[in-house]
Amino acid sequence: MQGLKGADNVINANFRKLVLGRAVGNAGDSIYMIAMNWFILQLTNSALWIGIMNVATVLPGVLLFLFGDSIDRHSKRRLLVAVEFSQLVIVVILIGLVALHIKLPGIYVGLVFVAALFGSLAYPIQDTLVPLLVEPDQLVQAQADMSIAYKGTDYVFNALSGFLISLCSVLGVLIMDAATFVVTVATFRRIKLAEPRQQHTREKSLYLNQILVSKLSALIRCCVY
Predict the structure, then answer these.
(1) Where does residue 22 rank: exposed (0-12), middle (13-18), buried (19+ CB within 10 A)?
(2) Which of 72, 145, 164, 190 stands the most exposed, by the fewest C-beta atoms within 10 Å?
(3) Nearest C-alpha neighbor of 21 from the set 179, 153, 183, 215
(4) Which tens digits make up the pLDDT trace of 10-57?
(5) CA distances from 69 to 32, 74, 144, 159, 165 (A)
(6) Residue 195 DSSP class
(7) Per-residue pLDDT tens for 122-142?
């Protein structure tokens, strides 16, 4: 019994790291998306460029279906660390460009698109990790916890981003954002998970495709309403 309890504690600790990483990472996503929209507005004073920036932010969610097989075949934990680290690298590049006063909006839009693509990939990867970290009877509660970590930080940091920009400037907010990704990468790296050898099966592909379809449907609803 003690051995089983110890195993449960390890699983719960790993799941807590996943939830924490999701919350902190989503906070970073919310901060830099709003910061970059504000920056592009200040740089161009153009509604057209704001529209292009919003397309660059939304389009990656539509392209998620292209990556389903790749996600299915590789280690979820390593993929998760990789996409978060990639976002960190892009944010550091953005910090350098802003600090150097580079005034080429196309470069910023392109980098935001790539960052948004990595950010969009993180969510289905996280969702496929959940069943590997909790018992079947804990899955519903675990998914609810992940949803709260996503939506809660989204609401809070969307509301706080404007205040942070006015307080710290866009450059300061981007530096804060880079710090959130450092925390996220470090947290996900600490997840201990012996993943089984990946096998491309119909059932696993169907489960992943359901996740990707649900993300796409939520994105469409946000765009429509």
Answers:
(1) buried
(2) 190
(3) 183
(4) 458 888 899 998 888 888 888 888 889 999 999 999 999 999 999 998
(5) 29, 9, 26, 36, 39
(6) P
(7) 888 888 888 888 888 888 888
